[in-house]
Amino acid sequence: MRLTLRVWRQKHAGADGAMSTYEVDGISPDMSFLEMLDTLNEELILKGEDPVAFDHDCREGICGACSLVINGDAHGPERTTTCQLHMRSFRDGDTIDVEPWRAAAFPVVKDLVVDRSAFDRIIQAGGYITAPTGSAPEAHATPVPKPDADAAFEHAECIGCGACVAACPNGAAMLFTSAKVNHLNVLPQGAPERESRVLDMVAQMDAEGFGGCTLAGECATACPKGIPLFSITRMNREFVRAARKAK
Does position 137 have pLDDT exceeding 80, yes or no? Predict the structure, then answer.
């Protein structure tokens, strides 16, 4: 495959950025999108040019680091992570635009790399449970009803990639925050911080500068792990209940 790539290049957060055009040839349809970028970078290095900076880690669809907007879609045309997107999703001769996440709370570090530490601070605000130190409790010491366990697992699938923010027209982080809140709030182990968790995490989300949620639904459509939109509704109910008690 021969492709034309238009890639966002930006030397650092304070610099002006622009799209740069590159031609790549000999791309196998079985390559992942990141392997295609590796091929581009090899060519750039051989020419003595600066390679394109992009985030990646596991390359197995687990860590959520490979965050790119491809042809205007978070993670590209398939509902998966960028590292699991293969070049067979494109056609020979295609022009592909590659950009970083676009959100005020995700400032660009360099090229396609953005700073997503805002997510870390949201989790630090309440994404934990109180547990006594010592040996781990017996696995079945606290019974969990199967519907609650299923709901917890469903929300725990969130990998914090940020596609929900990138896809949202408002740059909201409600789907991510609701997944982290609901994951623990449905479990008995999360009950002690249930109310403070949702209040603190939503407050931190607002403090990070994310946009307001209008339930457009683009976040759930872009989520590679299928976190459902009703997760936001569930968190909103938790928030209203906790806010009333806090008054």
Answer: no
The helix/strand/coil state of 89 is helix
| Distance (Å, whole) CA 66 – CA 68 | 6
Residue type, 2: R
pTM: 0.93
Residue 130 confidence (pLDDT): 83
Fill in the DSSP letter of residue 213: P
CB atoms within 10 A of CB 100: 25
Q: What are phi and psi of 9, to 5 degrees?
A: -115, 130
- Alpha carbon distance 82, 129 (integer Å): 32
Tokens 């392997």, located at residue: 35
CA angle 211, 214, 215 (to 5 degrees): 120
Which among 88, 24, 32, 89 has a CA at the least distance from the CA of 56? 32
Give me 151's structure tokens. 């709901």
Phi, psi of 186 (to 5 degrees): -85, -10
Nearest to 165 by CA among 111, 115, 128: 115
Residue type, 15: A
Nearest Cα neighbor of 130 from 196, 75, 69 is 196
User: Under the phi-then-psi rule, with left for phi > 0, alpha for psi from -120 to 50, and beta for the rest, what region is 71?
Assistant: left
What's phi and psi for 33, nearest 5 deg? Answer: -60, -35
The predicted pLDDT at position 246 comes to: 86
Give the integer Cα–Cα distance in Å for 192 and 59.
36
Positive or negative: CA dihedral 12, 103, 117, 80:
negative
